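Submission checklist for the structure archive. All mandatory fields must be present; incomplete records are returned to the submitter.

[x] Identifier: Signal recognition particle protein
[x] Organism: Parasutterella secunda
[x] Residue count: 449
[x] Sequence attached
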Amino acid sequence: MLNTLSQRLSRVIKTMRGQARLTEENTKEMLREVRIALLEADVALPVVRELIARIKAKAMNEEVIGNLNPGQALVGIVQKELTNIIGGSLSEKEKELNLATQPPAIILLAGLQGAGKTTSAGKLARYLVADRKKKVLTVSTDVYRPAAADQLKVITEQAGADNFPMDASLKPLAIARDALAHAKRYFYDVLIVDTAGRLSIDEAMMNEVAELHDDLKPSETMFVADAMLGQTAVQAAQAFNERLSLTGVILTKLDGDSRGGAALSVAYTTGKPIKFVGVSEKIDGLEPFNPEGMASRILGMGDIVALVKEVQKAVDVEQTQKLAQKMKSGSKFDLNDFKAQLAQMKNMGSFSGLMEKLPSQFAEAASKINDEDAQKAIARTEGIINSMTPFERTHPDIIKASRKRRIAAGAGVPVQEVNKLLKQFEQTQAMMRTMQKGGLGKMMRALGG
Ligand code: GDP
């Protein structure tokens, strides 16, 4: 099994603890791990080289901000550069489907056979009809495979759009022109033109698509790439881009187990935005492309962005600040604070939901967590604290045998549970003391408090 990048990185990060800044020396091992992870995700070698060079240049210029350790800072840089390459810096307008010309807007789909052109034509039609309220016509120009034209007809109907029947005795350009005339006459907003593909790059196929492109002057010429194909997809994308001046890419079959390295390579080699991704065989299996999510997927880091947001939402900032204030003033962490922390954990709700967003090695642990059990355990602990007197809560040291028995009876739990709680509390208190010395304020800022 492949080691995910996050597993590799967390090992390296440990060795980087306590170092003040990123240096040539301490980033070397980490960058090697990043490089291997990218190659394993099937990112093309020249792209990997360029990316590593960019990360290195950024890292050397970056002051490690106070509370991050250099390892974490580097992970941040890697994530950001990767996101930028695959389109994170594009404007909304550049990422969107361009339908701005006089109707009908023409969308031409090109790509190798089996890449998912016909399926994507149907999905696009559905998206335009259902989400954008457009009147959509589709046409196949694949005169070599009448079955492909039939397939397009079927999914066009599913999409709630219309299909222009293909006359296989005509040339592809003549068919497309007929369809365009029909679209104009009946006031269609969009005409989607599906083209013939071959199993590999082929001059005749290229000429045919280029002819359609030059004549129709589509507002979108999209290359449909199969994410599972890796390097082959990249070479094809490059060849098509040279001939057709593509306006965007649809990356299909991302529901497969590909790590999405092709996304990075295709975006980098063509310089064109990935506009949509295919995530299932079904007609609604098309999603707008999300560069941040894809960067995490390539790095095997799980959907960390979503996780961070969720945790920030759940952590009660005011509570956290109050605690920080109290700790700063040198007060002791007591059982009331402990109880407040438990309440926050309860607010976070679904533990397994949170854990699922973490990298795969945690996801496995998440599947074992039972939310109900976790919530019950918190509730029991709260019950025990509630059975203590206010004085006991601020002076836990005085809780000895007879008090423990009284508290246990009050909460309806065995004495062992009271012992367990006090032990947990002591550990947390010790941790708080260490942080008090080492600058708790910094940690709280890192948490967004
Ligand atoms: P074309 O030759 O380029 O027109 O390719 P097709 O549209 O016929 O697709 C080839 C195969 O890939 C079909 O079996 C599709 O169902 C499948 N396919 C296309 N897009 C996706 C996708 O996003 N996910 C999955 N799982 N399968 C897809």
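[x] Structure attached
Curator remark: The radius of gyration is 29 Å. DSSP finds 22 helices and eight strands in the chain.
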